[in-house]
Write a structure and sequence with these properties.
Bound molecules: NADP nicotinamide-adenine-dinucleotide phosphate
Strand content: 15-25%
CATH superfamily: NAD(P)-binding Rossmann-like Domain
Number of helices: 5
Strand order of the largest sheet: 3-2-1-4-5-6-9
Helix content: 25-40%
Radius of gyration: 17 Å
């Protein structure tokens, strides 16, 4: 697999779970990583392992559930030694398991704030710089969730991410800012639960494929990390 020396990647929600694996996978390919978690102490394990690679790390902290938290993350990321070349909008929350008939608007707002609005806000913050530099890879985490009406809020939030990613990709047609969306597979994490199909480590190497795309490669596309299980790590 191609390496990513001298690139900087921001991975939201890289304190644990899938984002942590992505941060480590990128570092293994020489990419400098801007890590993110709600609090600095949540990032210790991620940072400890990043030290094993010959890369730089930069810390961001903040809530994605508030506009002030999002602004803080953006500001801290912009203070990194390098620009955000690769943006993994990974952090997301699951919705409450409840009837599709009784779910309240407050629950739609809570989930859409983090799973959709925060994703768009980070794209708005970093995509113009990618355009100016003629290089960018944006990877928005989606889900293969289907036919679970009690989790419709989460499921619909991910459908919004898919559509937004396609529209953003069209905005950058021919500009080498590639915007794609990635289903990691059902993985054993706090969100996926311990009965999930695969250990979290199995998100690699597939999750890196949309970050490693050649210039002017595919954009506006769906990638499934588990389709790339055959690739060497
Ligand atoms: N696991 C699966 O089976 C599965 C399947 C399909 C799609 N996905 C998607 O994959 C992505 C990662 O999921 P995961 O399973 O790794 O989740 P996870 O284990 O629950 O980790 C969530 C990450 O997001 C951060 N986060 C949570 N709430 C936040 C908030 N309000 N503000 C800022 N950061 C917040 C957490 O940071 P802190 O540590 O600071 O709390 C953590 O780093 C998500 O987009 C998810 O929808 C997962």
């Amino acid at each position: 697999m191609k390496r990513l020396e001298n690139k900087w990647a921001l991975v939201t929600g890289s304190s644990r779970g899938i984002g942590q694996q992505i941060a480590w996978g990128l570092a293994e390919r020489g990419c400098n990583v801007i890590v993110h978690g709600r609090e600095a102490r949540n990032l210790e394990a991620t940072l400890a392992k990043l030290k094993a690679y010959d890369v730089q790390a930069h810390i961001t902290t903040g809530e994605l559930s508030t506009s002030s938290g999002i602004s803080q993350i953006i500001k801290q990321a912009m203070d990194a030694p390098g620009p955000v070349d690769i943006l993994y909008n990974n952090a997301a929350i699951m919705s409450k398991n409840e009837s599709i008939f009784t779910v309240a608007q407050a629950e739609w707002d809570r989930v859409f704030q983090i799973n959709v609005w925060a994703v768009m806000a980070l794209c708005q913050a970093f995509a113009p710089g990618m355009r100016a530099r003629g290089y960018g890879r944006i990877i928005n985490l989606t889900s293969g969730i289907a036919d679970q009406p009690n989790l419709a809020v989460y499921s619909v939030s991910k459908a919004a991410v898919d559509k937004y990613s396609r529209d953003l990709a069209a905005e950058f047609k021919g500009e080498n800012v590639l915007v794609n969306f990635l289903d990691p597979g059902w993985l054993q994490t706090d969100l996926g639960g311990k009965n999930a199909m695969y250990p979290v480590e199995d998100v690699l190497p597939g999750a890196l494929v949309p970050a490693l795309l050649e210039d002017n490669g595919p954009t506006g596309r769906f990638f499934a990390a588990q389709d790339f299980r055959y690739l060497e790590r």
